[in-house]
Specification:
The chain is mainly alpha-helical. It has helices at residues 2-24, 44-53, 56-63, 67-81, 94-107, 111-118, 122-138, 140-144, 150-164; strands at 172-179, 198-205. It has a two-stranded antiparallel ribbon with strand order 1-2. Helix 5 runs antiparallel to helix 6 (111-118), helix 5 packs across helix 7 (122-138) and helix 6 (111-118) packs across helix 7 (122-138).
Length: 210
């Protein structure tokens, strides 16, 4: 009985050795060496041209706001757009993040085009646009864009009348068309009275938002 058990153990050990030797004969593919850690991108347009060469007119033409309004937007969005304190790579500064968002929203350009312009990845552009829009809607917009209460409306009416001689004016309303790339299906639903596709933006302002 013991002899038979020893013989079985020997056979199991021998088959295991044969299996191990056959595995060793399988060629192992070589590991791919990393060619680069980060793709080379250029921020020359932002660092040199925009920050040091842009006139006020060029700034407003590209970002659709004045420099003063841009600084205010950076302050309003700092709580949710500022880079983390600790990052693996060099963080993109807050002003550049806001500029990327405004350039994308103001031009309706593809993420790829905006990314190449600022020297970042297109996923970075998409992330910043979402962070900015989501943060503004859930934060500053609720405080800045609202209807006046009764006392505020009466005060606005007094200021309008004192400045222009017209009583009972509590706001001025106007609209503008924002060009968009509509989907193939339902294209006609986006066409405005001028014959091209757009979103309609309508706003009411008081006497201090000229």
């Amino acid at each position: 009985m013991r002899r038979r058990r020893r013989q079985q153990d020997a056979e199991i050990l021998d088959s295991g050795l044969r299996l191990t030797s056959s595995i060793d004969l399988i060629p192992v593919p070589p590991r791919n060496t990393r060619k680069y850690w980060m793709k080379v991108r250029s921020r020359d347009w932002w660092d040199r041209v925009v920050l040091h060469e842009f006139s006020d007119l060029e700034w407003k033409s590209n970002f659709r706001v004045s420099r003063q309004s841009f600084v205010k937007l950076c302050g309003l969005s700092e709580s949710f757009m500022a880079p983390d304190a600790v990052t693996v790579r060099e963080a993109i500064p807050l002003p550049m993040r806001v500029a990327i968002v405004l350039y994308r929203l103001g031009s309706s350009a593809e993420y790829r085009i905006v990314a190449n312009q600022f020297g970042v990845h297109k996923c970075t552009v998409k992330k910043f646009v979402y962070m900015f829009c989501n943060g503004m809607v859930n934060g500053p917009v609720k405080q800045l864009i609202r209807m006046p209460n009764e006392e505020e409306a009466a005060e606005i009416s007094k200021r309008f009348q004192a400045a222009h001689g017209i009583p009972q004016i509590m706001g001025l309303i106007d609209g503008t068309h924002i060009p968009v790339l509509p989907p193939a299906q339902g294209y006609r639903d986006f066409v405005n009275r001028k014959g091209w596709p757009s979103y309609v933006l309508q706003a009411v302002v008081d006497d201090r938002c000229w």
